[in-house]
Specification:
Blueprint: E1 5-16, E2 19-30, E3 40-53, E4 57-69, E5 77-89, E6 93-106, E7 122-136, E8 139-152, E9 159-170
Antiparallel strand pairs: 1-2, 2-3, 3-4, 4-5, 5-6, 6-7, 7-8, 8-9
C-alpha cells in the first residue's frame, strides 16, 4: 500500500530576447519511507538560445541538466545533455520536433541490489515528435511519437522505449 505523501511541483520559465531558461522542481515527502517510496527532490534546468520567425519556424538549442536526490536510494542520479528543437505553427500544419542526447550518472552502482534493480550509467537519445496536419476543412491528422534508446555501461541494462500514436480527427 502506498503511504500518505506530500508533493509539490514548481516550474519557472524566463525568456530574455533570444535566451531562454526553464527551471523545474519536484519534491516528494512520505509520512513513512520504504524501499519503493523514498523522499526525493528532482530538479531540471534547460538553458537555451531561440531564433526564427514565430509565423514560420522557431529553432532552439539548449543545454539540459537534471538531478534526482533520493537519499540512499540507488535511483539517485545526475544527468546532462544537449537538445535541439524546431516548432512551427502554420495554417495547415502545426508541430514540434525535439532531439536530445546526453548522459546519466548514478551515485551508487546498485550492486547490493543486483537482482532487483539495474542502475548502470547510460548515454541516452530522446526524439519527440508532435504534429497536426489539416487534410481537409474539418479533418486533421495528429501524430505523436517518441524514440528513447539507452546505452548502458552494463550492456545487459540497455533498453529502448518508444511509442507512436496516429489519429484522424473530424470536427464539425
Amino acid at each position: 500500500m502506498r503511504p500518505s505523501a506530500w508533493s509539490h511541483w514548481t516550474d519557472l520559465s524566463v525568456v530574455l530576447g533570444h535566451l531562454t531558461a526553464d527551471l523545474a522542481s519536484e519534491v516528494w515527502r512520505y509520512d513513512q519511507e520504504s524501499f519503493t517510496y523514498v523522499d526525493s527532490w528532482r530538479t531540471e534546468l534547460d538553458l537555451g538560445y531561440r531564433w526564427g520567425d514565430p509565423l514560420l519556424a522557431l529553432w532552439q538549442a539548449s543545454l539540459t541538466g537534471e538531478n534526482l536526490a533520493a537519499g540512499e536510494s540507488p535511483e539517485t542520479y545526475a544527468q546532462a545533455g544537449v537538445r535541439g528543437s524546431v516548432e512551427s505553427y502554420l495554417a495547415s500544419f502545426a508541430g514540434s520536433l525535439a532531439v536530445e542526447v546526453g548522459r546519466r550518472w548514478y551515485r551508487q552502482d546498485g550492486s547490493e541490489l543486483e537482482d532487483l534493480v539495474a542502475y548502470s550509467d547510460f548515454t541516452y537519445l530522446e526524439v519527440w515528435l508532435l504534429a497536426s496536419l489539416h487534410v481537409a476543412a474539418n479533418l486533421t491528422l495528429d501524430v505523436t511519437a517518441s524514440y528513447e534508446p539507452e546505452s548502458h555501461t552494463e550492456q545487459d541494462d540497455d533498453v529502448t522505449l518508444g511509442f507512436g500514436s496516429v489519429s484522424l480527427v473530424w470536427r464539425r
